[in-house]
TrEMBL record:
<dbReference type="GO" id="GO:0015450">
    <property type="term" value="F:protein-transporting ATPase activity"/>
</dbReference>
<keyword id="KW-0812">Transmembrane</keyword>
<dbReference type="Pfam" id="PF22599">
    <property type="entry name" value="SecDF_P1_head"/>
</dbReference>
<feature type="domain" description="SecD export protein N-terminal TM">
    <location>
        <begin position="2"/>
        <end position="105"/>
    </location>
</feature>
<dbReference type="InterPro" id="IPR048634">
    <property type="entry name" value="SecD_SecF_C"/>
</dbReference>
<dbReference type="Pfam" id="PF02355">
    <property type="entry name" value="SecD_SecF_C"/>
</dbReference>
<feature type="transmembrane region" description="Helical">
    <location>
        <begin position="457"/>
        <end position="477"/>
    </location>
</feature>
<feature type="transmembrane region" description="Helical">
    <location>
        <begin position="482"/>
        <end position="504"/>
    </location>
</feature>
<dbReference type="GO" id="GO:0006605">
    <property type="term" value="P:protein targeting"/>
</dbReference>
<keyword id="KW-0472">Membrane</keyword>
<keyword id="KW-1133">Transmembrane helix</keyword>
<dbReference type="InterPro" id="IPR048631">
    <property type="entry name" value="SecD_1st"/>
</dbReference>
<feature type="domain" description="Protein translocase subunit SecDF P1">
    <location>
        <begin position="232"/>
        <end position="289"/>
    </location>
</feature>
<dbReference type="InterPro" id="IPR027398">
    <property type="entry name" value="SecD-TM"/>
</dbReference>
<keyword id="KW-0653">Protein transport</keyword>
<dbReference type="GO" id="GO:0043952">
    <property type="term" value="P:protein transport by the Sec complex"/>
</dbReference>
<dbReference type="InterPro" id="IPR054384">
    <property type="entry name" value="SecDF_P1_head"/>
</dbReference>
Amino acid sequence: MLNKYPLWKYCLILVISVLGVVYALPNLYPPDPAVQITPAQSGDAVDQYTLSKALDVLDEAQIQYFGEELQEGKTALIRISDEEKQLQAKGLIQRELGDGFIVALNLAPTTPQWLVDMGAGPMTLGLDLSGGVHFLMEVDMQQFLTQRIDGYRDTLKRNFREERLRYKRAVLDEEKRIKYEFIDEETRDKAENFVRREYAEFLTDTRDEEGRHWLVLTMTPAKIKELEDYALKQNLTTIRNRVNELGVAEPMVQRQGRNRIVIELPGVQDTAAAKKILGKAANLEFRLEAKPGASRFSSEEFEFKNPERGRTSARLEKSVIVTGDNVSNAQPAFDENGQPQVNITLDSTGGALMGKVTKKAIKRRMGVLFIEHKTRTRYVERDGVEVPVEDKYTEKKIISLATIQSALGSSFRITGLQAAEASELALLLRAGALAAPMYFVEERTVGPSMGKENIDLGVTSVKLGLALVLIFMIAYYRVFGLIANVALAVNLTLLTAVMSALGATLTLPGIAGIVLTVGMAVDANVLIFARIKEELKSGMNVQQAIHSGYDKAFLTILDANITTLIVAIILFAVGTGPVKGFAVTLSIGIITSMFTAIMVTRALVNLIYGGRRLQKIAIGGGV
């Protein structure tokens, strides 16, 4: 029988439509502005006492809040009644709790639990629609240059020994110049010739003071600029990798000036986690444990991050085997006893160095030194107002000290960590170590980049255009127009549901993609209805005309949508940022409009007209 679907097709359309409604529903529940408290140290937790201190501060400042809760015993979330007070609340709580906690802006979801249990969640809005969080980070170029020049000093000391150029001492002065004192003038001159021949990045100068023969090396301005550019580019790459590890949708990470990086996260994401990962200028150093009786010139003492069997510190050699820069991959795992560990894979250079050193150090212990560049906040009074001042410092602690049982290669493991620390360390190593220490200079919320008025006008134009399309379809195509409008509503619901389920970010170009999808969905229905009208005018009966109209219009609609889909895929492949958002929305819209324009409208037409003897139908144009 013509124009009759089997029962399974009706059930399939119904199931898909119901799922679409379920997964689109979370977008009707806007999130609440909130402040999140997270421990700065991995593995620590926020307790009720800490939460109470934070709430007392808000009470004193008369900032209204609600829904305060401890989440999984590790973090705390406080919902703020007034969005304008969110940033003020963050600052007050941060001062009260100190540097042991990260207090960050967040958006607390209001999606009902039954929807969350089904895996449903709202779409993420881009910076141009909802605003987001803005971080400004500064690279500590002075400390970076000091580290690099200090590395040159050690390398040159080794080279001088190999060339049998005896020197008395090597120092690094406040102007970042390397000064070597030699035993006589002839040796000093040979050393100068060697440096000029092998190290073009240094300017040389000789000085004789009170019988002392000095060789002074100053790094050239060109080399300094090259190192600074390298540090900033490497940090940019590392920050982008860390943002990708966080899974933030469509972020912006770009250079600003000589030594700063701007990071913008669309929507107010979990900024506590973002700050914890983005700002952690951490690295690893692998060193052998110092031999008993080793001098202070060749060894250093460090505390354990997690004390081992009551032992709080150990001495390590100053010479470094490899660093975190040589790590090509790192994954958290558990050992045979269920204890957390990090599986490390070194690059070829690191693997060769590790094998060379450990081959001669079997039965000795090797320490893994975790190095973090941190800031400590204090408050000073200026012009009668207390302002925060951040002091920078470096913390070095041993996270593992294990006996070398056999020569190590490119793959080995680090133990002695808590589960949260292992996951965080693996993430930092995978994303890459920062070439230079970085510190947060500014954190603030940013409003929608398009401006609220422009967004309101854009949304109003979309609503107006959609309303005019719906009215026109009903006025011109009558019952078939009403069917097309129902299918259009299903299409928009499915589009919203798919984007929400995929975690896609909706931007203003994405809204343009939705508008284009609406036009394409209606256009497909217009083609079908026009074909049905032509068949009716040629004398074909109603049932045959409906069947023929859908069949003959199908290929035309398929060709048009496939060509548009190819363009959307190309846009996604070569585009960036908002262009990708437009491409994603358009691609999903093409697929959903094909389903609704053909399957859903056909099902509705079959339910209304299928199997009936009809002389005419209300399809407009006098038919």
